[in-house]
Structures are given as C-alpha cells and as structure tokens.
Amino acid sequence: MNVLLLKMSSLGDIVHTLPAVADAERQGVRFDWVVEENCRTVPARARGVEQVIEVAFRRWRTAPFGFAPELAAFRRRLRRRRYDLVLDAQGLIKSAVVGVWARADERVGFDAASARERAATLGYGRRISVPGRWHAIDRTRRLFAAALGYEQPDRDPVFDLRGTGRDVGTGREVVLAHGTTWTTKHWPEAFWIALARLATAHGLVPVLPWSPGERGRAERIANAVSGARVCPPSDLDGIMELLATASGVVGVDSGLAHLGAALGRPTVALFGPTDPLLTGSRGPYVCNLTASLACSPCRSRRCRLEGRFPRRYGASRSVPPCLQAVEPVRAWAALTDLMKRQCRDCLAR
Predict the structure, then answer these.
(1) From its phi and psi, is residue 31 left (phi > 0), alpha (psi between -120 and 50) or beta?
(2) For 91, what's the count of Cα atoms within 13 Å in the CB-facing half-sphere?
(3) Could you give the 3-state DSSP secondary structure of residue 251?
(4) Beta strands 205-208; 229-230: pairing state
(5) β-strands 173-177, 248-252: how paired?
(6) Phi-psi region of 43 (alpha: psi -120 to 50; beta: other; left: phi over 0)
(7) pTM listed for this prediction
(8) Residue 232 burial (CB < 10 Å; 0-12/13-18/19+)?
(9) What is the pLDDT of residues 200-222, one digit of tens each?
C-alpha cells in the first residue's frame, strides 16, 4: 500500500509519529511524507519512507504572494503520483487542504472530537476516533492501525532511524537543549549554568545547540562555564549526529529533547506548563521531570502566576514557577542515573 502521510511539523510531533510509521512498515506499508523543509532529515531517515515531499508553509506565510510559484511547484510534485490513501496525522486545516490537493483513492484522519482543528475533518472521507487523553505517540499509533487495517501492536514504541549511530554514545558531550518556542517552557539561564558546571565537574563537556534567536543565550551560558562550548552553526543532520554520539541530553519540552530520547540517548526532559503524560519524551533511557505545583500543567503560553514566587538560583521573575521548581541538582541526578543504567545494560549485553 502506498500512503501519503501528512505530518508537517513540529519537530517533536514528527518524532512522535515515528513509532506509528515503524508499526505500519512492518505491515508492508510505504509512505511518501509531506513535511516542513527544515524538518526533512527525520522522515528521510525513517524506515518505510520512500520519498520526502518538502513544504514551506512557515516561510510562505510571511509573503504568500511572493512565494506563489513555489506553492504551485509543490502542488505539481504532490500530484505526480496517485496514492492508495492520504493519512492526515496532523489534524489541521492546512494539512487537510494538502490532502485534498493530492490524488488519492481515500482520505483518512481524526474525527471532529480528536482533530486539533474540527474543520479539518471536512477533508476526510473516513474519520477515526482516538482518545484525547492518550499520549501523542499512542494516539498516532491508534490512528495508523485503524486507518491502515491492522491491529495496533502492544510492543514499546520503536524509533527506527536509518544511518544514525544510536548505540554509539562514545562522546563526552552532554547536549543542553535550551531552546524552545514557548516563553513559558524556558528553564532559567542560571539553571543551565549550574547544570553545565555540574557536568564539567564530572569530566563531561556541555554543548549548547541553537537555532535563530537562541545563539545569545547559548553564548552566555557557555561563557559562564569553563569547558562548555557553543555548537557551531549546523543543520538538523549535524545536530542528529551530535545527539547520537552524546553521553546524555537535558532539554526543555522541545524537538531536540524528544529526538535525543528517540535516538536512545539518556535524556532528561524538563516539563512545566506542558503535560508529559500527553507529550513526554519516550525512549529506553528517559526521565520526564515535572514540578509538583497545583497549577502545572496549565498548557498556557503565558504564566498567570508570573512574579508571584521567589526566584531561585537568580532566575528572572519572568520564568514560570513550575520550571523554577525543577532545580539543576535534580536534573543532574536524573541524568547520571540514566547514564549509569545505560552503561550497566551495555556491559550486560
């Protein structure tokens, strides 16, 4: 069966789709995957994906008329092949529109109660109900199984990324994935500095990747800690190789943290306003740390309690109290426990 898969963004959501792709690949399903251009590396390495079709909605929306020729070229490429089925795992109006553009015998997606945008369901011929309180990985695996006609496997999620040395982990680097798009997801810079100092004190090298707008924070953290370094400019391919060989990863709720976990690295993910039960990192060596505050998770991009709690480690009052409550020593203890467990498992093989 040839399927056009629509899961265009974000990086974390794409990573969470990989186990469903692995399930379907075992059933003989082959995918063409429509994805945002800056995320193409991940589906390109996924087993069962024959072709990655890049889209650039994030760039096009800045000047929609100026990019009209690119959009037309995208539509032409989309229609070169006829598919047995279009599977919309995004559940947004824009993904449903892409599905309508494609040539396919059938279009399938979430039902109105399960989709992120109810209007998206107008683009589907078949709509599937998925429990809303399940983790994103489990929701997507259920969607794929129901859409493609096989029984959902009960095995643990598999993140099958070809060409990535997920069992390497020979480096001394600890990746500090400090970047995120939500202001309420940020961990205080002072906390990153404290964590980096703990890492260097134990002979490890903290490495700080960055994307546009984040380099200044990475440099401030690295400048405060002797032995820490800022990652050189790199595309997602380079970041994946860094993650695959790292001794460990600590990150806020972001695509890089989810990717580190999927690559089998000991990963500590820091959660405040978002819910790890719904979007937490999954993998063989993962710890999702959360605060015990009654207001968390609020799922809000703006903290209603801003400035009402005392600052810790010199954190700014703009940092939500839920993330101030997840202290560096706790993150370090969790990471060292995961690294020791992975080492024991490697020796036992």
Answers:
(1) beta
(2) 20
(3) strand
(4) parallel
(5) parallel
(6) alpha
(7) 0.92
(8) exposed
(9) 999 999 999 999 999 999 999 99
